[in-house]
Design a protein that fits this description.
The protein is α/β, with parallel strands linked by helices. Helix content is 36%, strand content 21%. Bound molecules: ligand BES, manganese (II) ion and zinc ion.
């Protein structure tokens, strides 16, 4: 889909469809008011009769605008009661418009939704969000269907309207960033949606190399198991030994910043299928464990977006990729393994594999002399219990870094919430037989997982994002969400500002 920005007025613009807003009680946005005037009161008459919905996210399509209106159609989107919209509501309004346009017959439209007031957000932000939410709303994963029926008249071009020429460059830069982030989100969703047999560790490595084709500024390196063995990554290798697919450690570098400035290192959990291993999971919904590489996918998506935006920053993405399967040679509960850091780990549950692969990747991260390290992982079912499917869990050994990420979450609408990393919790992972156990008992599973990782991140500022609840949706809309690419790209953009 194409996006652009231009200066125009709602009543005189020639378009297949103009998109405007209405809120309760019976309040038109400025562009809607102009259209009402040009149509000699058509909109207000319809509204009075109850034929225009004002609830947030409800749409009404007017096929035959009257009077002097130049557009062929008017799409009115309801905004509910709020005078100032929340970030969440704005996203809902934009996606409702996009879905209506995608299934309707206009293939091109001009949107005036960026004239809405969104709490503390400027035009560039609204333009960016419009592009992202529109692309997210029309995304489909149908590469594995043999008989796809695309929409009859898909939306091909969305123009973001601005009032004055002076606003044009701001809107255009928002559009550009929106396209880059949407591409990153889409990449993360598509990688997440691919099944375990088509998205193995080797496939992820191939994807990384493909990413370099799109963005020559990236540098890609893939470490094989032999190299991991030399490095002493006994924790990571203890997970992959139960699988016939060899593990890969994928390293992607983007150097958009000054030489010698310390990079942001992103570490993404890349378990391409998590059966639990010998501590095997129950069968129900086990297919969803193909999404256990969504942390990795978000690292790919974020690097792609950063490269496309040409952010002046140095970035390193590290993805430990493996399957977790049972086998005669798989790790067993009670096995003790030695991590790259030298610390020994008693594997009390082979289903707590994410922390085992991340700990070695986090030790490896130190060689890049990071400014900060952020890991992203579908790490604990406990995080879904604590925060549900709306919010990412955040844990950190540095409050400034935690605040930066929380703020990026608030700003983008891709929100996170912090949990504590206190010593009392850390005591839960003590072991009688090794330096630590890989599980911490019944309570506070997300925090004890964070404490485990915290033992490998003492030498730098670090934060952990547990995306177990937000990385994908279950049920009839089953599929990867692309989260937290928005949070991460906003975090990086803020660091560049
Ligand atoms: N990938 C899972 C976490 C998960 C489970 C994410 C369900 C989303 C939905 C992880 O590897 C895992 O199995 N964690 C265990 C840890 C436990 C054994 C301490 C869990 O959460 O049950
Ligand atoms: Mn597991
Ligand atoms: Zn897992």
């Amino acid at each position: 889909m194409n996006f652009n920005a231009k200066t125009c007025a709602a009543d005189t613009v020639r378009s297949a469809c103009v998109v405007v807003a209405v809120s309760e009680p019976r309040r038109f946005s400025p562009a809607a008011r102009q259209l009402d005037k040009a149509s000699r009161g058509q909109l207000s008459a319809l509204l009075k009769r109850g034929d225009i919905a004002t609830d947030c996210g409800k749409t009404t399509l007017i096929h035959t605008p009257q009077g002097k209106v130049q557009a062929e159609r008017i799409l009115v989107v309801g905004c509910g009661k709020e005078r100032k919209l929340s970030v969440q509501h704005f996203g809902k309004i934009v996606s409702a418009a996009a879905k209506n346009l995608q299934s309707g017959s206009a293939t091109e439209a001009v949107s005036f939704l960026t004239e809405l007031d969104v709490e503390d957000r400027d035009l560039a932000w609204k333009a960016q969000r419009t592009v992202e939410a529109t692309r997210q709303a029309v995304y489909r994963f149908d590469e594995l269907k043999s008989d796809v029926k695309p929409p009859r008249h898909p939306l091909r071009r969305l123009t973001i309207a601005v009032n004055e020429r002076g606003e044009l460059s701001e809107a255009k830069s928002g559009v550009k960033h929106g396209i880059a982030v949407a591409n990153g989100i889409e990449l993360a969703r598509t990688l997440g949606n691919r099944p375990g047999n088509l998205c193995t560790p080797a496939d992820l490595a191939t994807q990384a190399r493909a990413l370099k084709k799109d963005h020559p500024a990236l540098k890609v390196q893939v470490l094989e198991e032999s190299a991991m063995k030399k490095l002493g990554m006994g924790a990571l290798l203890s997970v992959s030994r139960g699988s016939r697919q060899p593990a890969k450690l994928i390293v992607i570098q983007y150097s958009g910043g000054r030489r010698n400035t310390r990079p942001v290192v992103l570490v993404g959990k890349g378990v391409t299928f998590d059966s639990g291993g010998i501590s095997i999971k129950p069968g129900a919904a086990m297919d969803e464990m193909k999404f256990d590489m969504c942390g990795a996918a978000s690292v790919f998506g974020t690097l792609s977006a950063a490269a496309e935006m040409k952010l002046p920053i140095n970035l390193v993405g590290i993805v430990p990729a493996t399957e977790n399967l049972p086998d005669g040679d798989a790790s067993k509960p009670g096995d003790v393994v030695t991590s790259m850091s030298g610390q020994t780990i008693e594997v009390l549950n082979t289903d707590a594999e994410g922390r085992l692969i991340l700990c070695d990747a986090l030790t490896y991260a130190d060689r890049f002399k990071p400014d900060v390290v952020v890991d992203i992982a579908t790490l604990t079912g406990a995080c879904v219990v604590a925060l549900g499917h709306h919010t990412t869990g955040l844990l950190s050994n540095d409050q400034d870094l935690a605040d930066e990420l929380l703020e990026a979450g608030q700003n983008s609408g891709d929100r996170a919430w912090q949990l504590p990393l206190w010593e009392e919790y850390d005591e839960q992972i003590s072991s009688n037989f090794a330096d630590m156990a890989n599980i911490g008992g019944r309570g506070a599973g997300t925090i004890t997982a964070g404490c485990f990782l915290g033992r490998f991140t003492k030498d730098y500022r670090w934060a952990h994002l547990d995306i177990a609840g937000v990385a994908w949706k279950s049920g009839h809309a089953k599929g990867a969400t692309g989260r937290p690419v928005q949070l991460l790209t906003r975090f990086l953009m803020n660091r560049c500002a």
